[in-house]
Amino acid sequence: MNDPLIIDHLSKRYGNLTALSDMTFTVNAGEIFGFVGSNGAGKSTTMRIVLGVLSADSGRVLLGDRPIDLEMRRQIGYMPEERGLYPKMKVGEQLRFLAELHGLSSADARDNVVRWVTRLGLGERIDDNVGDLSLGNQQRAQLAAALVHEPTVLVLDEPFSGLDPVAVDVMSDVLKEKAAEGVPVLFSSHQLDLVQRLCDRVGIITKGSMRAQGSVDELRAGGGKTLHVTGPDTSTRWADGLPGVIEADYRGADTHLRIDDTADDQRLLATALTHGPVHRFATSHPHLTDLFREVVSA
């Protein structure tokens, strides 16, 4: 089993601007960790510190119990938000160069290149210049560059940006396969539906600080529940003032109630029935998108 990636109390300032403040979280071996936040929240800064591109003012990055050094960073597969492949260099040639730069032999590098371009649907484009590929295929080539040296850690900054649904499925499968091999996978994304579906745990960052983290189910459960009721006459505002009702939203024949743990669903149902027939009575936890908006706006 691989070691966990540990982000330990990172802080970073640029003059009066606080880019990171006491950033702390762990990506366990075999775990996919989604790192979400608004533009400028500090996601890319954190990742660049992990890679040694930036230095932190304080805090540490560890792999297991060891601070990451230059040699250990060669084990990391990194996909930057600003794609970094040479546009006038052939796909296969560039990937072989990067694999050898990370310490693979020429033979292993060649075998890995063929395997990954085939796996990612680029087999027929291996001798094309990167700049001649579509943006989606350039994205696949960038992912191949992060994988070709068989990394023990993956750090991917917006890896799904600009991909078509087929490519999203391919990349999702690859990340799940690497996690199943024990690789800690950290990726950022604004596609919260995808994050909710794919990730074991999620961290929500705003203004350089980690504001919420946990499994998707834990975060959704912590966001309270919504009771959806269809049928009762909404003009009566029938749920106003009932115990456990935090907020009531009446829309046509539908009532949406934000409720807490003190709400008595049987009492709510009985009250609803006094205002008309009930065709739907169901609870749901908030979507990750709703939690994100709530955390970021707090």
From TrEMBL:
Supply the alphabetized keyword list: ATP-binding, Nucleotide-binding, Transport
Query: Locate the ABC transporter domain: which residues?
Result: 5-232
Pfam families from the UniProt entry: ABC_tran (PF00005), DrrA1-3_C (PF13732)
Database matches in InterPro entries = AAA+_ATPase, ABC_transporter-like_ATP-bd, ABC_transporter-like_CS, DrrA1/2-like_C, P-loop_NTPase
Q: Per its UniProt record, what SMART domains does this chain match?
A: AAA
- GO terms, molecular function: ATP binding
Family according to the record: Belongs to the ABC transporter superfamily.
Q: Which PANTHER family did the record assign?
A: ABC TRANSPORTER, ATP-BINDING PROTEIN (PTHR43335:SF4)
- Under what name is this protein listed? ABC-2 type transport system ATP-binding protein
